[in-house]
Specification:
The complex is a heterodimer. By secondary structure, chain A is an alpha+beta fold. Chain A has 10 helices and 19 strands. The longest helix of chain A is centred in the middle third of the chain and has 18 residues. By secondary structure, chain B is an all-alpha fold. Chain B is 70% helix and 1% strand. Chain B contains 23 helices and 2 strands. In chain B, strands 1-2 form a two-stranded antiparallel sheet. The longest helix of chain B is centred in the N-terminal third of the chain and has 34 residues. In chain B, 47% of the residues are buried. The chains are: A alpha+beta, B mainly alpha. The interface between A and B is large, with 39 and 36 residues.
């Protein structure tokens, strides 16, 4: 039985529907990310699960118990907010022990537990400081320790890393993930940062306009996006206009015929998707499928690789490709140069509808 | 399953929700009892006759057809308009000097300008009488004319209103975007043109607010007209005469409601202006940095000295006169005037009563108003009740003290009211004062609460800590400076207020500010001035104590703010 079940949860604010019949289930010990652009409903869903802003209809079951109508205090979760919401007038120790002191535990026991938690998050010596004296990353860890202090069954993280600078953020990703594995606590994290979701989550729930677009492992989300929205939102993606001409056959742009293994919607306008790093440049022979010549229109240097804008001889086809620095050197790539590329048939994804621009 | 799909979730109230809703219900009850009910009684009284029979608009028709009463209305409007026309430009220039220049001693100028706030409004009127009254030292300067009347009222009101208007304009002028000035200069605009196209429009909402506040202050003030008005009647003194003098409660109610009209109007104008003023400045604005300009600064320096000097003279005259044997014939100094027992049977008691009343109103008021604001801000659901509380909390701002006081006698003095026993006690003075100054205190509390992280309550709930515990352990300690501000605000106003409490004090609960009026009425001007100076001394001491407390105790309690 799943640990958390969300069943057709709908949230309305007046005329506006923030969540439309959202259903998902989460296994015990899983790390799940809600990913989507701002306003997609991911935070609304998290707050409904916490009971902070209850849903309009639909049920939420946690550990076999229907918690749909329960106030937050009668549910079982710990939460970390983007702002951390640390109590500024209490020391780090008092913040972490805040939920314990209320449970009438002996002072010594509380102290032991607080020290244990502070060691767990890597702040064993900072207990007597006030939050304002800590760095952003340290405050984040205190908030995490406070949320974990009462050993909740469910840990909710609402954009916990977005207030931090890039370097600290990258380090904390690994730390939070490691901590979650060790404690085995079921965790939901809300984020708009796809990289964060891809690196941390067991499963990602991609949301848009109050609906779930796709649920899957990071690899599935990245490699087999279920909708054009997911394809576009996660990672970089080429969208090429085309038409289906037969089983496994597509006509790109103004009539460039290619093969495609992804089941294509029958007839009409379609969008063909390919990641820039999947554009094949090396080892192309006369027998390589989906091969055509392109001219390099632009090169954008991005550190470890270059993103090239390629224009096909056949009109109406422009796409980007990522070239490693290595490849650039080997093939002597430069603006204006013409070369042959291929679009691997098994990497192409096809979605219905006209390409936007 | 179609049924289950549509089933709406009815969130179960937590114990916190229940506690907070009960709290809001109590707040609503108290506000209804001490703000809404008295005002309602006043309104209904104006439509009834002395026997309690409904007479429709008869009282109003009687009012309009009595030339003496209508004359007071015109008198009131006239002096309010004239005072506003004098005070607002003066205060604007003064505020400009304080905010947009690098004059030496700006802090001193600001402090001196705010002194009149520490005194009851009648203090400047008493000084005017010492200078220009029947026995005035400078009476000859007036030629044959008298100070008692419109001239005296206007001159005194200017002093009384100046600091109130100044504070608004300082706030309005302090907020300015340096980038606008740089752009104007880069476009080659002259300083004069910049003033008219950047400075003045930037402060326009502050100016609107200042104009309305000044107009209302003059219109509704009672003390000055009482002391120096002579035969010149205004609305505020009419209310007093109708109610206390002639026991004509119905006509008093009518005049009170007429007094309420412009105050309500100005309240809404002020709210409008304040909303606009805030949105004027974007978060990305660069703060204005004043620069030196010799000619302008010299003129402004002279101007500020003149105003500050006049304020000091006016306060000083009252202080000096209170120490004089027999003004103006025997100018030797004495403390005899401070032997209040010789001039009024209550002696020094009113000062202690005032202190007690102010301390109670400030302590009870600060705690109650802050807690109520917290309940309002942090509770979930219960929208209708919360809306009502919100409305009643803002209402007192629009009600002049005299009108509220009038409502209080009508409501609490009625024999059928079970709360009748409150009438004439210290308790009713405390309640009335807290209710009268509720709005500003409420806004201060809400502002402080809004600065807190909105998720404290969510965190607290997730840790299963009851909200009242978090209120005591987190919310109150963080908001302590704001709570202290509310305390001081209520205390200072309770010390100086006259208008509301003039109807409500009893034989044992005469306040210092009332003692000033009664001794002045009995002709013991020097003792009246002495009592007024005692009030100034208490107010000043409180301010200094507040400052000291902020620097020491509060700084220690708030050391977590340091990085």
């Amino acid at each position: 039985m799943p640990y958390l079940e969300v069943d057709r949860v709908t949230k309305r604010f007046g005329m506006f529907t923030a969540l439309e019949a959202v259903s998902l289930s989460i296994e015990r010990g899983e790390f799940v990310c809600f990913l989507g652009p701002s306003g997609c409903g991911k935070t609304t869903l998290l707050r409904a699960i916490a009971g902070l802003d209850p849903q309009t209809s639909g049920t939420i079951r946690q550990d076999g118990r229907d918690v749909s109508a329960l106030p937050p205090a009668e549910r079982d979760f710990g939460i970390v907010f983007q702002s951390y919401a640390l109590f500024p007038n209490l020391t780090v120790e008092d913040n972490v022990g805040y939920g314990l002191q209320n449970r009438r535990k002996p002072a010594a026991e509380i102290r032991t537990r607080v020290n244990e938690l502070l060691s767990l998050v890597g702040l064993p010596t900072q207990g007597t400081k006030y939050p304002a004296q800590l760095s952003g990353g340290q405050q984040q860890r205190v908030a995490l320790a406070r949320a974990l202090a009462t050993s909740p069954g469910l840990l909710l993280l609402d954009e916990p890393l977005s207030a931090l600078d890039a370097r600290v953020r990258a380090r904390l990703r690994g730390e939070i993930r490691g901590l979650q594995r060790r404690l085995g606590v079921t965790t939901i994290m809300v984020t708009h940062d796809q990289e964060e979701a891809l690196t941390m989550a067991d499963r990602i729930v991609v949301m848009n306009h109050g609906r779930i677009e796709q649920i899957g492992s990071p690899l599935e989300i990245y490699g087999q996006p279920a909708s054009a929205f997911v394809a576009d939102f996660v990672g970089s993606m080429n969208f090429l206009p085309g038409r289906v001409t037969g089983p496994g056959r597509i006509s790109l742009g103004d009539g460039l015929a290619i093969d495609c293994t992804h089941a294509a919607p029958q007839g009409g306008e379609i969008r063909v998707c390919l990641r820039p790093e999947d554009v094949q440049v090396r080892g192309i022979t006369d027998s390589t499928a989906n091969r055509f010549p392109v001219t390099i229109a632009e090169l954008e240097f991005l550190g470890s690789f270059c993103r090239a804008t390629l224009r096909a001889a056949s009109p109406g086809i422009t796409l980007t490709a990522d070239f490693s620095i290595n490849l650039m050197r080997d093939l002597d790539v430069g603006v204006g140069k013409t070369l042959d590329i291929a679009l691997p048939a098994d990497r192409l994804r096809v979605f219905a509808g006209e390409a936007a621009g | 399953m179609a049924l289950a799909e549509a089933a709406l979730i009815r969130p179960k109230a937590s114990s916190d929700d229940i506690i907070m809703r009960a709290g809001i219900a109590v707040v609503l009850f108290l506000l209804a009892l001490f703000v809404a009910a008295p005002l309602w009684t006043l309104l209904s009284k104006s439509f009834h006759n002395a026997d309690g029979r409904w007479v429709g608009l008869d009282n109003y028709i009687h009012y309009v057809s009595t030339p003496a009463l209508i004359q007071s209305l015109w008198n009131s409007l006239l002096i309010s308009a004239v005072c506003t026309a004098i005070v607002v430009p003066l205060a604007f220039v003064y505020a400009y000097a304080l905010t947009r220049t690098l004059l030496p001693g700006k802090a001193v100028f600001q402090a001196v300008a705010l002194i009149p706030i520490l005194a009851p409004s009648l203090l400047p009127a008493m000084s005017m009488i010492y200078l220009f009254g029947n026995q005035g030292m400078l009476k000859q300067l007036l030629g044959g004319s008298e100070i008692y009347g419109a001239g005296g009222i206007i001159a005194s009101q200017v002093f009384y209103c100046f600091p109130h208007v100044l504070m608004i304009l300082v706030t309005a002028l302090a907020m300015a975007d340096q980038r606008l000035y740089e752009a104007a200069e880069a476009l080659g605009a002259s300083r004069w043109r910049i003033f008219w196209t950047v400075t003045l429009p930037g402060a326009r909402y502050g100016l609107i607010s200042a104009i309305f506040v000044c107009f209302t202050l003059v219109l509704t003030d009672f003390g000055i007209a009482k002391v120096i008005g002579g035969q010149f009647n205004v609305l505020a003194t009419d209310v007093y005469k109708q109610v206390i003098g002639q026991q004509n409660f119905e006509m008093g109610a009518v005049v009170g409601l007429i007094l309420l009209a412009p105050a309500v109007l100005s309240f809404f104008a002020d709210r409008y202006a304040q909303k606009r003023q805030v949105s004027l400045l974007s978060a990305r604005a660069v703060p204005y940095v004043p620069r030196r300009r010799k000619g302008r600064d010299a003129l402004l320096f002279l101007f500020c000295w003149l105003i500050a000097g006049l304020i000091l003279v006016i306060i000083g005259i009252a202080g000096w006169a209170s120490l004089i044997k027999r003004w103006p014939y025997n100018l030797s100094l004495t403390f005899d005037n401070y032997d209040f027992e010789n001039f009024d049977p209550t002696g020094w008691d009113p000062l202690w009563t005032s202190l007690k009343m102010a301390a109670c109103a400030a302590a009870i008021g600060a705690i109650a108003i802050f807690t109520a604001a917290w309940l309002l801000e942090k509770s979930r659901g219960f929208h209708f009740m919360r809306g009502l509380v919100q409305f009643l909390a803002t209402l007192p701002m629009a009600v002049p003290g005299l009108v509220l006081g009038l409502g209080y006698i009508f409501f609490f003095n009625s024999p059928s009211n079970p709360l009748n026993f409150l009438y004439g006690t210290l308790a009713i003075l405390v309640i009335n004062t807290a209710a009268h100054y509720y709005t500003v205190a409420h806004v201060t509390a809400v502002t402080a609460l809004k600065q807190l992280d909105a998720e404290f309550e969510a965190v607290s709930a997730s840790l299963k800590v009851p909200l009242p515990v978090t209120f005591v352990r987190v919310t109150v300690p963080i908001c302590l400076p704001a709570i202290l501000d509310i305390f001081i605000y209520l205390f200072a106003n309770a010390m100086t207020t006259v208008s509301a409490v003039i109807f409500l004090y009893g034989a044992d609960t005469k306040l210092a500010s009332i003692a000033v009026i009664s001794m002045d009425e009995s002709g013991f001007n020097a003792s009246a001035a002495g009592m007024a100076m005692c009030i100034v001394a208490v107010s000043l001491t409180t301010r200094l104590l507040h400052l000291l407390l902020e620097r020491t105790l509060l700084a220690r309690l708030q050391r977590w703010r340091r990085r």
